[in-house]
Amino acid sequence: MKWIKRLWWVLPILLILAAVAFLLWASGAATPMPEALAALESDARVGVETDPWLVFRPIDQDPTTGLILYPGGRVDPRAYAPAAGALAEEGYLVVIVPMPLNLAFFAPDRAADVM
Question: What is the value of pTM for the model shown?
Answer without folding.
Answer: 0.79
